[in-house]
């Protein structure tokens, strides 16, 4: 039976992972650094049936880091599976790991049941032949195994920002897909509701690809009048139609050496879809009014917020073009399915736009979390961004509280999911500081007090009367909730 090699400098992590291997019934070795890992691998080998079949690899290691070791391992013809583990559960680490050939990526703290399953699936015994589709770089979505690119150097020179915020399991899956496809030239179709970050994902694929130094060109099919679409995409020669006063290159030409992002592809009129299909198949374009085809050297990423498969069934979108585009489909989850990301995004937006719009540091108050979690965000990340920006514009202090969100979000009780929604969101979401009970009461009490104060124009005595409480109690509650007198 093949062995698992656990590489982590933290003995307690090695211990826990060791027990997990035992539970899975798979023998294991341990190493505390990349150096030690190389020694263990040399001694045990990776080719023999009792050699190392799976490496559980931490990124942060003393000396050479895990990503360096991963690069070395992926380059070996007898590469074992490598599952990368990291506490820096960000977009960059997931993308980097998959790009360098990891079989999977896990953020800490681990879901041990999942680790156990991975160990069972990937550390395969001699009597079960290895499943080729699970080899490094292959994806669950049926992608062909990916050869390591010759120019791995290329990547390291580019410092990539963490453009996408979010650590929910659903987003980590997206990061993994970005890493997998970035090292290929495959056409990608991004599917997701409006405002889920499709354009950011397209940019991330580009920035992580070997075309990163080339242009990233966007065409929004919904924004171009149908009559101009052909010339916009493929360019035109002077005088080829009324208004064509100059020779103009099309977006395909402008994106040469880079990536062409075809946004809202579902909006493309059927009669123009045939030409796009031909261009993609023949990798050549003809300018409108031109007579010499130009070679196409672009990577296509298309996006849609419509149900393209249904559009195909209804005859509004060509089936052959759909298959051409959906070589690698990536689905972007709506914000309501991204557990924990709402608060993470909100904090980031508050701090970023606080500086930009107010020119000072602003933080998100704890009591603002419950109303944010209660909302279902039909407009996804874009809606959240707008709500934060609008609330910041009216903000006078340094903290954005639930009171500051009043008017920008449906009030608790009248929101699309109602008070029950707020409560459910609190129970499902991460435990807020101070506990769920306190957060729930604050989420109701703060807007109640601020509404009473609004009615009494800030008169605390009258507000206290309206609420049926003592003025001192009101003051105390306001202090506890972090509310300032108007
Ligand atoms: N994960 C994320 N982290 C940070 N910002 C994000 C994230 N996702 C989306 N955004 C921001 O939300 C806004 C909408 O994102 P984007 O334009 O990429 O969405 P989209 O899916 O392309 O929307 P549409 O279908 O309406 O064009 C942008 O301002 C983008 O910067």
Automatic annotation (TrEMBL):
Positions of region (Disordered): 124-146
InterPro entries the UniProt entry points to: AAA+_ATPase, AAA_lid_NorR, CheY-like_superfamily, Homeodomain-like_sf, HTH_Fis, P-loop_NTPase, Sig_transdc_resp-reg_receiver, Sigma_54_int
Sorted UniProt keywords: Activator, ATP-binding, Cytoplasm, DNA-binding, Nitrogen fixation, Nucleotide-binding, Phosphoprotein, Repressor, Transcription, Transcription regulation, Two-component regulatory system
Family annotation (PROSITE patterns): RESPONSE_REGULATORY (PS50110), SIGMA54_INTERACT_1 (PS00675), SIGMA54_INTERACT_3 (PS00688), SIGMA54_INTERACT_4 (PS50045)
Location of the protein in the cell: Cytoplasm
Domain Sigma-54 factor interaction: 164-393
Keyword Transcription: yes
Sequence positions bearing 4-aspartylphosphate: 58
Gene3D superfamilies hit by this protein: 1.10.8.60, 3.40.50.2300, Homeodomain-like, P-loop containing nucleotide triphosphate hydrolases
Bias (Basic and acidic residues): 128-137
All residue ranges annotated as the Response regulatory domain in the record: 3-123
Major localization listed first in the record, in broad terms: cytoplasm
Protein name: DNA-binding transcriptional regulator NtrC
């Amino acid at each position: 039976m093949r062995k698992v090699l656990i590489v982590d400098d933290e003995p307690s992590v090695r211990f826990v992972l060791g027990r997990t291997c035992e539970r899975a019934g798979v023998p294991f070795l341990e190493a505390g650094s990349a150096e030690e890992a190389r020694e263990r691998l040399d001694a045990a080998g990776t080719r023999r049936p009792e050699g190392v079949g799976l490496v559980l690899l931490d990124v942060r290691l003393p000396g050479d880091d895990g990503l360096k070791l991963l690069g070395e391992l992926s380059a070996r013809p007898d590469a074992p599976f490598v599952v990368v583990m990291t506490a820096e559960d960000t977009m960059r680490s997931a993308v980097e790991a998959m790009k360098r050939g990891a079989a999977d990526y896990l953020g800490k703290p681990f879901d041990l049941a999942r680790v156990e399953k991975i160990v069972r699936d990937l550390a395969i015994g001699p009597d079960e032949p290895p499943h080729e589709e699970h080899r490094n770089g292959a994806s669950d979505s049926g992608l062909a195994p990916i050869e390591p690119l010759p120019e791995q150097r290329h990547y390291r020179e580019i410092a990539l920002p963490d453009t996408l915020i979010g650590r929910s399991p659903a987003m980590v899956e997206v990061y993994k897909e970005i890493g997998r496809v970035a090292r290929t030239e495959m056409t990608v179709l991004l599917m997701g509701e409006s405002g889920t970050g499709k354009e950011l994902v397209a940019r991330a694929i580009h920035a992580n690809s070997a075309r990163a130094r080339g242009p990233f060109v966007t065409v929004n099919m919904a924004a171009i009048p149908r009559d101009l679409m052909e010339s916009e995409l493929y360019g035109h020669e002077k005088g080829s139609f009324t208004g064509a006063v100059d020779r103009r290159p099309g977006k395909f030409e402008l994106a040469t050496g880079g990536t062409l992002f075809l946004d809202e592809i579902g909006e493309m009129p059927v009669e123009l879809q045939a030409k796009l299909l031909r261009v993609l198949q023949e990798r050549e374009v003809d300018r409108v009014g031109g007579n010499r085809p130009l070679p196409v050297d672009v990577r296509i990423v298309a996006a849609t917020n419509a149900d393209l498969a249904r559009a195909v069934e209804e005859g509004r979108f060509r089936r052959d073009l759909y298959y051409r585009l959906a070589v690698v489909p990536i689905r972007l989850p709506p914000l309501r399915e991204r557990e924990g990301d709402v608060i993470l995004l909100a904090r980031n937006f508050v701090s970023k736009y606080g500086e930009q719009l107010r020119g000072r540091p602003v933080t998100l108050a704890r009591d603002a979390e419950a109303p944010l979690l209660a909302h279902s965000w039909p407009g996804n990340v874009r809606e959240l961004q707008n709500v934060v920006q609008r609330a910041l514009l009216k903000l006078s202090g340094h903290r954005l509280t639930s009171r500051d969100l009043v008017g920008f979000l449906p009030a608790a009780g009248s929101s699309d999911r109602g008070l029950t929604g707020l409560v459910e969101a609190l129970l499902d979401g991460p435990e807020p500081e101070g506990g769920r009970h306190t957060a729930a009461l604050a989420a109701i009490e703060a807007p109640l007090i601020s509404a009473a104060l609004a009615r009494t124009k800030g008169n605390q005595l009258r507000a206290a009367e309206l609420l049926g409480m003592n003025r001192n109690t009101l003051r105390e509650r306001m202090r506890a909730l972090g509310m300032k007198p108007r």
